[in-house]
């Protein structure tokens, strides 16, 4: 005997059933509208996402190298709900170019992954979608390593010699077009504060012929080996740095050749500067007491004092393991004092000058700052005058405005003496307020 089970719906629930279903549908639509207004679907761009290249060996195994023709970064577009987009950043994305997927058109498809599981692949667009490369034959060339030092050793020392332990050259293997652009290979080492010989590690820097450093991507296309063909670990070499000592104030000696005109003679030879600082090995410096300029200065036919420049490059270059210290100019000024045999040059200190009409509101600077030279001639042919017998007077009345002035010095001599040449003094005038302002700054 079978029994039928009947489900009875209370009459109050079945009343106005259509209106109730309509209410549920309207409520759902309202929720859907509110949800889309509060958290709408939008698109966001993430720019400059670097491409990660894998399986490069699939190209290098066939003695080929590749160069990226297109950009090495992409733009990623994500279409998603606003709340998810706001939680994303560029670091959430990884873009991979698998060289095993290289096509006959020399393009590599790009694949993207996102660390945020809420984002699916169909919501991501990559621009461009592939990486364009150019295949080249791998070539190898040899380059000299230039050592550059930075910083300054301890006082009393300078860098004497530098030498790359692995050899003076390196062998670079890579795409031919890249090797053709290389201009210099540099090993830079810091010598700041050192006082003993050092062996310092340096990562090689490679720059193109325009002086621009190769990018990380370009460097990754190269193999760097030492002069023996051994692959350099992390592109690093060792540099031996040998310090030389500084020898200060070595006197300069000038020789002359020839003779002045009859009746004239060379009374003095002076140089500016009078000494130079040298750098060299301890043994080499120990043998040097002076710098004798290798080429004599000619005084043939001279009738007056004159000045000429002399270059010490040849003289210093002839010395083994010695050079001029840093910052020392190789060119010096040589003054040959030429006088008649019956002339006499007397040096007067500036403190012996009789100064007239000096302006009170100006600051004056004299050149030369210590002594002036007065050349006199005795009528009887033998001069024995002293500085105390000479009166020198200077009138500074013209120095009322800022500027440089060449002012004559009036010389009074005892009877029986005449002045051979006029005497002048260079004077710089500056307002005292300007000097004070400059000092405060």
Number of strands: 30
> Can you tell me the residue ranges where pLDDT is under 50 for at least 5 consecutive residues?
435-441
User: Count of helical segments?
Assistant: 9
- How much helix is in the residues? 10-25%
Report the biggest beta sheet as strand number plus sense, adding barrel if it closes.
Answer: 11 strands, mixed
Spatial separation of the terminal alpha carbons: 119 Å
Mean pLDDT: 87
Supply Rg: 44 Å
Strand portion, in percent? over 45%
Can you describe this structure?
This protein is mostly beta strands. Helices cover 15% and strands 49% of the residues. The protein is built from nine helices and 30 strands. The strands form six sheets. Strands 1, 2, 3, 4, 5, 6, 7, 9, 10, 12 and 13 form an eleven-stranded mixed beta sheet that branches. The longest helix is centred in the first third of the chain and has 22 residues, at 17-38. The chain is elongated. The termini are far apart. Residues 435-441 have low confidence and may be disordered.
Describe the structure using short key phrases.
mainly beta, eleven-stranded mixed beta sheet, 441 residues, six-stranded mixed beta sheet, 30 strands
Mind sketching the topology for me?
Elements: H1 11-14, H2 17-38, E1 41-54, H3 57-60, E2 64-68, E3 73-81, H4 82-87, E4 93-98, E5 107-114, E6 124-127, E7 130-150, E8 157-164, E9 169-175, H5 176-181, E10 182-190, E11 198-203, E12 205-208, H6 216-220, E13 223-226, E14 236-253, E15 256-257, E16 264-272, E17 275-280, H7 282-286, E18 291-292, E19 297-298, E20 306-311, H8 313-317, E21 322-324, E22 331-340, E23 343-349, E24 354-356, E25 362-367, E26 371-378, E27 391-395, E28 403-412, E29 417-419, E30 423-431, H9 432-440
Parallel strand pairs: 1-4, 7-10, 14-18, 15-19, 24-27
Antiparallel strand pairs: 1-3, 2-7, 3-6, 4-5, 5-7, 7-9, 8-14, 9-13, 10-12, 11-14, 14-17, 16-22, 17-21, 20-22, 23-26, 25-30, 26-29, 27-28, 28-30
